[in-house]
Specification:
This protein has a domain at 38-98: Orthogonal Bundle (Cytochrome Bc1 Complex, Chain D, domain 2), CATH 1.10.760. Helices cover 41% and strands 3% of the residues. The chain has 5 helices and 2 strands; from the N terminus they run H-E-E-H-H-H-H. Helix 4 packs across helix 5 (81-94). The longest helix is centred in the middle third of the chain and has 14 residues, at 60-73. The chain binds heme C. Heme C binds at residues 43-44, 46-48, 52-53, 56, 66-67, 70, 74-76, 87, 91.
Amino acid sequence: MMKARLALLFLLATPVMGIADEIPLDPFSGLKMTGDWQIVLGNCIACHSPKLITQQRGTREQWLQMIRWMQKKQNLWQFTPEIEDRILTYLAEHYPPRDDQRRAAIPRDLMPPNPYAPPTQEPEDAG
Ligand code: HEC
């Protein structure tokens, strides 16, 4: 009986393994259990699902902008510079931009004409 319980406990406590990089995932939040993940856990899931974080990707700068946006618009509290640095390092390292996430924007001159654009002024006839 005791053994079975221990085995069950062990099973429950075994984190799900991340497929790509073998970093174990926290079964509760899905965060990669490495580095300062617990700081992120403690500061980033009070208002929304951790999936919002684990599905997101970004450079350090992009993550910083998301944090600034939440601080400005969503009542996210201020972090000390040290904590902010740790959060950003964790996020940028483990949730960096992905190749398959989004294609690069098409250059303007390769875009098809926009049918809803106001009529453009033809260049003035010089003469
Ligand atoms: C005080 C509340 C609060 C906390 C704490 C919070 N967020 Fe958010 N966050 C929000 C709200 C509100 C949204 C918008 C949710 C929505 O669109 O449904 C959001 C959206 C996001 C998004 C999606 C942004 C997008 O462009 O779609 C990400 C990623 C995110 N948060 C990451 C974080 C991270 C990382 C932390 C910790 C540093 C954090 N959040 C902590 C309130 C919070």
